[in-house]
């Protein structure tokens, strides 16, 4: 379990990934610049974006400003992006990676993910990611939104085991089976939409615990992720919220309170189902 913003989790290729970071899904390119800068200034070292978000350039600009204002170095940050792999062959995947790198203004990525499995549209792109990893242009490679059967197919065909599976994960969608399978295979689980796009912030159980611990609802939920060894990347464009989201390392949820939150799991998604999302 991590104990600070800079604490890391060891991936299966021995790369250290911060357990807490900033997500920028549905954030405009312009807003992203300031969001990323303020996050770095607040002590964040992990930033997560994706090609389809259309804000990689903003992330890169925010990183540049954040490094300049804090004196941090590029190698102190952990930057993730994802490839929108719909219909891409090997060469197109390489080209898409190079485009992302150029947009970010970086010369390597710490983590690069296949964004969606689609209708098994990941084997050729994965082969390209493996070669990019072996050439040293990416520190770690992984996947996003993969169900167990997708992971099994990939593991049967791949040369390199993915380091991370980033999935929709929150107390209403706890992904226990996917997490258990990933752990068995040495794959780290990472949560997107950890606050269920805000839908959990008024939940009665969460609010009761927020009162008990004198914390916000968001802090209770994010702490639940951390204590379950799930890497988490909450999104915010507000400086106060960016700081508040990270203020979860001065308390610990009791075992019985973790169990209360576990009871909220009913399989409710706010995003697409990977088994039916085929890049429509």
UniProtKB/TrEMBL annotation:
The keyword Translocase does not apply. InterPro entries: AKR, Aldo/ket_reductase_CS, NAD(P)_OxRdtase_dom_sf, NADP_OxRdtase_dom. Keywords: NADP, Oxidoreductase. One of its GO terms (molecular function) is oxidoreductase activity, acting on the CH-OH group of donors, NAD or NADP as acceptor. Pfam families: Aldo_ket_red. Substrate binds at residue 115. Gene3D superfamilies: NADP-dependent oxidoreductase domain. Signal peptide: none annotated. Belongs to the aldo/keto reductase family. This is Glyoxal reductase.
